[in-house]
From TrEMBL:
Keyword DNA-binding: no
Biological-process GO terms, alphabetical: succinyl-CoA metabolic process; tricarboxylic acid cycle
Keyword terms, alphabetized: ATP-binding, Ligase, Magnesium, Metal-binding, Nucleotide-binding, Tricarboxylic acid cycle
Function comment: Succinyl-CoA synthetase functions in the citric acid cycle (TCA), coupling the hydrolysis of succinyl-CoA to the synthesis of either ATP or GTP and thus represents the only step of substrate-level phosphorylation in the TCA. The beta subunit provides nucleotide specificity of the enzyme and binds the substrate succinate, while the binding sites for coenzyme A and phosphate are found in the alpha subunit.
Catalysis: reaction(s): GTP + succinate + CoA = succinyl-CoA + GDP + phosphate; succinate + ATP + CoA = succinyl-CoA + ADP + phosphate
NCBIfam families referenced in this protein's UniProt entry, alphabetically: PRK00696.1, sucCoAbeta
Gene: sucC
Cofactor(s) for this UniProt protein: Mg(2+)
Name of this protein: Succinate--CoA ligase [ADP-forming] subunit beta
Domain ATP-grasp fold succinyl-CoA synthetase-type as annotated: residue spans: 2-210
Length: 396
């Protein structure tokens, strides 16, 4: 589950991670109030107005502005709120900005120049270990750094049996070329950040940039945080942080029906029981000359209700030209699924696109017979290659 920058910073602060202080607002007037309050709390004279959407690269799209007065705060918050912000991560359609974060200015003059770094923590599935990824090239896309200057990326793997060790936090600080108080502050920062990552059951923390201020403080200027959906039962308060306005409406609807759905850009809708089979089904669609329009896992207990919900969600995508239902009858019998397909078809009424149903496993032949004798515009298949061929035929 993705959350906003201001929410991620609130969590980090609770774990002792120093952050760029800020207050969220949803109107220009509230933005000015936030700026006044922030000035009282921090003494800042200038302010940063930051769009709050679930996407990076906001500055490149005009979603981050410096304001040097309260009037400028109002003006720039008014310009950002309500805009359709397009960034490299939103796609051409962009995202509507509903909130802005009014933050303190942390790039103040002092004994030394401020310096930006990149720092993230995530799970390396190849090693089954958490990994800290660090770079001196803060403020840039890490993908760009990896492509152009891979030598500037440092990785530190963490053994889950012992957790982050002190020498590892110091290695990160050394990699940044820090010394003196800034070195000590970075060690504290890395240690607190990893504690927050582990105790919140996060799947990703990305701080870009981490800032060394001119007086050698280390703080998070930005914060991207992904929470593991499967661990939310341990963090009831985190569920309240979900912002469904930032999510695809079809994915939200699917979640409410207990379906795992991800919208894609293709022309063949697919409905499958099991994530692995769903991935294989998308490969089959590609091999047949089509493009998958979605990932949809109805789970092991597919029935008329889940099939109907799946149909309705898939059909809301205007790009869908055909639907492939691929069910393996292990937990559930294929004849039950076939009856569910027929019942769901009748409930929905006339479905304007061809449907191919591939059933394999327990009572597969009985299921195919039910489909064929239903009188509906549904083609049945048992072998995967037959299903691929029929998808190819209906797309021709």
């Amino acid at each position: 589950m993705n959350i906003h920058e201001y929410q991620a910073k609130d969590i980090l602060k609770k774990y002792g991670v120093r952050i760029q202080e800020g207050i969220v607002a949803d109107t220009p007037e509230k933005a000015v109030e936030a700026a006044h309050q922030l000035q009282e709390q921090t003494g800042t004279e200038w302010f940063v107005v930051k769009a709050q959407i679930h996407a990076g690269g906001r500055g490149k799209g005009g979603g981050v502005k410096l304001a040097k007065s309260f009037d400028e705060v109002k003006e720039k918050a008014g310009a950002i709120l309500g805009m359709q912000l397009v960034t490299p991560q939103t796609g051409p359609e962009g995202k509507l900005v509903r909130k802005v974060l009014i933050s303190q200015d942390v790039y103040y003059p002092g004994a030394s120049e401020p310096k930006e770094y990149y720092l993230s923590i995530t799970l390396d599935r190849n090693t089954s270990q958490d990994v800290i990824i660090a770079s001196t090239e803060g403020g840039m896309d890490i993908e760009e750094v990896a492509a152009k200057t891979p030598d500037k990326i440092v990785k530190e793997w963490i053994d889950p049996a012992v957790g982050l060790q002190g020498f590892q936090a110091r290695k990160v600080a050394f990699a940044f070329g820090l010394s003196g108080n800034a070195f000590k502050e970075m060690v504290k920062f890395v240690t607190a950040l990893y504690t927050a990552y582990r105790e919140t059951d996060a799947s990703l923390f990305e701080i870009n940039p981490v800032l060394k201020t001119s007086d050698d403080k280390i703080l998070a200027v930005d914060a991207k945080m992904n929470l593991d959906d499967n661990a939310l039962y341990r963090h009831k308060d985190f569920a309240e942080l979900r912002d469904i306005t930032e999510e695809d409406p079809l994915e939200v609807e699917a979640g409410e029906s207990g379906l795992n759905y991800v919208k894609l850009d293709g022309n063949v809708g697919c409905m499958v029981n099991g994530a692995g089979l769903a991935m294989a089904t998308m490969d089959v669609i590609k091999l047949s000359g089509g493009e998958p329009a979605n990932f949809l896992d109805v789970g092991g207990g597919a029935n008329a209700k889940t099939v109907e919900a799946g149909f309705r969600i898939i059909l809301k995508d205007p790009n869908v030209k055909a639907i492939l239902i691929n069910i393996f009858g292990g937990i559930v019998r294929c004849d039950r699924v076939a009856n569910g397909v027929v019942e769901a078809y009748k409930q929905i009424g006339d479905i304007p696109v061809p449907i191919i149903v591939r059933l394999q496993g327990t009572n597969a032949e009985e299921g195919a017979k039910i489909i064929e004798e239903s009188g509906l515009k549904v083609k049945s298949a048992i072998l995967l290659k037959d299903a691929a061929q029929k998808v190819k035929e209906v797309l021709a």
